[in-house]
């Protein structure tokens, strides 16, 4: 018999009528012959209300009591949903997180799932019951109630689908699927039939609010197909699976993160371990740092720029000021009126000209790019906040995201084409079943025979990045990583990129031509560098990965020249002579997480 997990978000159980309608959906599935597990969120804005209430009683409520309080929202809705089902003539049993055996660690308000015991659910299902499970909550070893973090019911649903080996995991919500970008920001955004886990992970971490990040990590790890659909219509929705909708379109989605701030630490001594000190201080405050760019230093010093969410700027600056002397940096500047615009696409890695196309679109829209970072499936540009909407529209248009790609396939077509593969099954087998959400790395690799080219004193004007990468592309040179960062000297920027070592002489010639054209200060090329890559699932929700990587490199005295991070990889460009040592060191520190064992 097939088993379906159906998750209903807060808006889908906001009132009695909606609760009944959710109940009917489950009953309908049951009558079609499926076993049904429902996962339900708190009604409407109940969680927000509880949070507010707590705030009125205490400014610093204990995290344990907070979870005790917030978990009640879901307890209300599962009971009501079960009653509604019983009233409509089927049999249902509601269960709390503890009762479904959802065991987590003890990090209240952001607990990670360790294991789930399925016996009770299976017994009830075999008895013909619909199981209505409370989302978002679990229990720790001491039976304390824990919660998984805001939006965590998605993760409950996908995790249950994984351990119950469900045939489908349906996420009922107030939107009718996943769009190429947020349709509230851009009306021409298009609903996609299919999107890949990787694309969805990137988009979710950029703030595309459709699904809880960790639920996608779970789905990818266990190969659970997710079906996002509207609870208010029978529209088709979107499938989140391994494959993308198209195998050729370079970009699958775009996102804009409006409220960012840029911080630049000036004159950081360019020796191993210095940026680590900075980022450890910020990491200690649990602030997620993004778009890290280390300007290749002049006179043995570098300017390190990065972005943080705007509302964490003050805390970030405090953290930096606390270590600035120890680090030996000369100062810090910031800009809090910036936004991040990104494009994401699983097919990007195998294509040339994607970055220059994005930069050209921004230039033509009159948008000045302040910083750039790239990873294998994402390109991000930092732009003035006043231009962010124009920037998003321009890139959405340039990559024709409003049109269905000519080779786009439906989920049914993709499924029919699938080769039986045991990759996923093998991965799952290697996962310890008492550490379901533990960090899972899939490999540590080194790409050697690379070269780095840096343009210094790049004027901070629109159109320069487009010109640089169009010119390089026209010369037939394939560029891998790109970073553009702030230059503390004079408010100009510097642009670095990597190419295969054999392309270095030609790249330098082209770069010098460009530098002359725009009156740039200098061009430098570093002959023998290597790119070290740690790959895995959901690297950014385990924030320690990048930190551990830099710690290890610093300890082995390896200087990091460029950095690029994504959900899938953390990349560091280092001196080639250190590559083997770096790889060995990393394999050792990450031994516990490799292959999930
Ligand atoms: N009720 C929780 C929240 O509002 C969990 C969820 O809705 O997924 O964050
Ligand atoms: Mg919710």
UniProtKB/TrEMBL annotation:
InterPro entries listed in its UniProt record: AceGlu_kinase-like_sf, ACT-like_dom_sf, ACT_Aspartokinase, ACT_dom, AKii-LysC-BS, Asp/Glu/Uridylate_kinase, Asp_kin_monofn, Asp_kinase
Transmembrane residue ranges: none
Listed pathway(s): Amino-acid biosynthesis; L-lysine biosynthesis via DAP pathway; (S)-tetrahydrodipicolinate from L-aspartate: step 1/4; Amino-acid biosynthesis; L-threonine biosynthesis; L-threonine from L-aspartate: step 1/5; Amino-acid biosynthesis; L-methionine biosynthesis via de novo pathway; L-homoserine from L-aspartate: step 1/3
PROSITE patterns in the cross-refs: ACT (PS51671), ASPARTOKINASE (PS00324)
Gene Ontology CC: one annotated term: cytosol
Entry EC no(s): 2.7.2.4
UniProt-listed Gene3D superfamilies: Acetylglutamate kinase-like, VC0802-like
Superkingdom of origin organism: Bacteria
Record has Zinc as a keyword: no
Keyword line: Amino-acid biosynthesis, ATP-binding, Kinase, Lysine biosynthesis, Nucleotide-binding, Repeat, Transferase
Top-rank EC class of the record's enzyme: transferase
Keyword Amino-acid biosynthesis: yes
Record GO biological process: homoserine biosynthetic process; lysine biosynthetic process via diaminopimelate; threonine biosynthetic process
Sequence ranges assigned to domain ACT in this UniProt record: 263-346, 453-537
Gene Ontology terms, MF aspect: aspartate kinase activity; ATP binding
Catalysed transformations (reactions): L-aspartate + ATP = 4-phospho-L-aspartate + ADP
Protein known as: aspartate kinase
Organism the protein comes from: Stieleria marina
């Amino acid at each position: 018999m097939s088993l379906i997990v159906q998750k209903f978000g807060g808006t889908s159980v906001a009132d009695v009528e909606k609760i009944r309608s959710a109940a009917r959906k489950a009953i309908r599935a049951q009558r079609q012959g499926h076993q049904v597990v429902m996962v339900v969120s708190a009604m409407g804005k109940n969680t927000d209300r509880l949070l507010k209430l707590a705030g009125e009683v205490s400014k610093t409520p204990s995290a344990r009591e907070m979870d005790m309080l917030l978990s009640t929202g879901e307890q209300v809705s599962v009971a009501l949903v079960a009653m509604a089902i019983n009233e409509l003539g089927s049999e249902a049993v509601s269960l709390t997180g503890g009762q479904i055996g959802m065991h987590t660690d003890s990090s209240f308000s952001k607990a990670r799932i360790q294991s789930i015991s399925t016996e009770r659910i299976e017994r009830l299902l075999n008895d013909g019951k619909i199981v209505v499970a409370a989302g978002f909550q679990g229990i720790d070893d001491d039976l304390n109630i824990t919660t998984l973090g805001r939006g965590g019911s998605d993760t409950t649903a996908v995790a249950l689908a994984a351990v119950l080996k469900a045939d489908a995991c349906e996420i009922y919500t107030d939107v009718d699927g996943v769009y190429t970008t947020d349709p509230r920001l851009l009306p021409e955004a298009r609903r996609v039939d299919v999107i890949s886990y990787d694309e969805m992970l990137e988009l979710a971490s950029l703030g595309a609010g459709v699904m809880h990040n960790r639920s996608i990590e779970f789905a990818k790890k266990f190969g659970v197909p997710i079906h996002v659909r509207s609870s208010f219509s029978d529209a088709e929705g979107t499938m989140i699976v391994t494959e993308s909708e198209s195998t050729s379109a370079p970009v699958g989605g775009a996102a804009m993160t409006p409220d960012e701030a840029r911080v630049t630490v000036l004159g950081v001594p360019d020796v191993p371990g210095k940026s680590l000190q900075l980022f450890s201080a910020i990491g200690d405050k649990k602030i997620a740092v993004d778009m890290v760019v280390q300007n290749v230093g002049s006179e043995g010093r570098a300017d390190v720029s990065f972005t943080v969410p705007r509302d964490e700027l003050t805390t970030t600056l405090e953290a930096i000021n606390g270590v600035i002397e120890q680090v030996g940096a000369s100062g810090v500047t910031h800009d809090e009126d910036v936004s991040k615009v990104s494009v994401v696409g699983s097919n990007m890695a195998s294509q040339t000209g994607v970055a220059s196309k994005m930069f050209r679109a921004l230039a033509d829209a009159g948008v000045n790019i302040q910083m750039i970072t790239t990873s294998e499936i994402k390109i991000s540009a930092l732009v003035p906040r006043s231009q962010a909407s124009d920037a998003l529209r321009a890139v959405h248009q340039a990559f024709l995201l409003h049109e269905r790609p000519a080779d786009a396939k439906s989920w049914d077509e993709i499924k029919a084409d699938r080769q039986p593969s045991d990759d996923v099954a093998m991965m799952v087998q290697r996962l310890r079943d008492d550490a379901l959400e533990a960090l899972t790395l899939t490999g540590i690799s080194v790409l050697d025979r690379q070269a780095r080219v840096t343009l210094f004193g790049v004027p901070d004007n629109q159109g320069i990045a487009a010109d640089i990468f169009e010119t390089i592309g026209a010369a037939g040179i394939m560029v891998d990583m790109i970073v553009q960062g702030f230059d503390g000297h004079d408010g100009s920027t510097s642009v670095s990129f990597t190419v295969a070592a054999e392309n270095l002489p030609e790249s330098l010639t082209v770069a010098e031509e460009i530098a002359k054209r725009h009156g740039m200060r200098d061009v430098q090329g570093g002959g023998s560098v290597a790119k070290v890559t740690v790959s895995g699932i959901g690297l950014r929700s385990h924030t320690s990965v990048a930190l551990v990587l830099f710690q290890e490199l610093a300890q082995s005295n390896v200087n990091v020249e460029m950095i690029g991070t994504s959900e899938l990889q953390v990349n560091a460009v280092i001196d080639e002579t250190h590559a083997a040592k770096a790889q060995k060191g990393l394999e050792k520190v990450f031994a516990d997480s490799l292959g999930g064992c």
